[in-house]
Write a structure and sequence with these properties.
Length: about 250
């Protein structure tokens, strides 16, 4: 995996997206590598046990994330990690413990990845609980086994987040899936174009103002600004605290 990601970083190509499917299977490869390093068969026994194997696994995860970050920052690629889900007990310090959906990863890896990414999206189906013969049964809401949805905001039921101001729940019928997928790709690819167009009309703006205007995160805008500066399309003028970004004379929004 590291070799493939390094090749994507260093070698010429036209790919715009990298997908790891799935992160939980990648974790199995990482566990195998840790076991090989310490000459054991079980991650629990690595480096004498007591959870040290999972700590060593984080070192490998950080290498992967560092490479993915370089693909995003230097090559302008969209990074997508797919993971299966599991039900895990959450010990809430303020309330009674409850079960929730989490990525099927060790908690240390799940926390590391969730902190790095811009969005954690949980795909599920809508159900309602009804009683039949004194038994609780999950009944689907909607056709075809339940309405498909994506949750973008965390809740007691699942881990989720987003830095894009998305609605908390996105419906996922086939038609909506196709429409929103096209919109999502279009927004991701054209952020640079939107920045150029905004600066054409509003020269001298800073990254946070651009982000608010085009409806994305400052972090995303800053990433694209670095690429645009490297391409010679924009430049920063003025003092670091008071200056702003301007189009280079030859820059185009096409």
């Amino acid at each position: 995996m590291v070799a493939e990601l390094t090749a994507l970083r260093d070698e010429p190509h036209d790919f715009q997206t990298v997908v790891i499917d799935s992160a939980d299977w990648l974790e199995r490869l990482i566990f195998d590598e840790v076991c090989r390093e310490f000459g054991v068969r079980n991650i629990e026994k690595a480096d004498g046990g007591y959870g040290r194997g999972y700590t060593h696994a984080l070192t490998h995860w950080r290498k992967v994330i560092a490479l993915l970050n370089e693909l995003r920052e230097k090559r302008g690629m969209m990074v997508i990690l797919v993971a299966h889900a599991k039900v895990e007990r959450f010990e809430d310090p303020e309330n009674a413990a409850y079960d929730r959906y989490t990525p099927r990863l060790h908690k240390h890896a799940a926390n590391l990845i969730a902190e790095w990414v811009d969005a954690v999206l949980f795909a599920n189906k809508k159900f309602r609980v009804q009683k039949e013969n004194e038994r609780a049964i999950a009944a689907p809401i909607g056709a075809d086994g339940g309405e498909r949805i994506i949750r973008t905001v965390g809740s007691p039921a699942c881990i989720a987040k987003n830095r894009y101001g998305l609605p908390g729940e996105i419906p996922r019928t086939l038609k909506q899936h196709l429409e929103t997928s096209v919109v999502g790709v279009d927004v991701g690819v054209n952020v640079g174009v939107q920045i150029l167009e905004y600066l054409r009309l509003n020269p001298g703006c800073r990254a946070n103002a651009i982000a608010n205007a085009i409806g994305t995160t400052t972090r995303t805008v800053e990433r694209h600004i670095r690429q645009l500066r490297e391409q010679g399309k924009i430049e920063f003028r003025g003092a670091p605290k008071t200056g702003g970004y301007y189009l280079q004379p030859e820059a185009t929004t096409e």
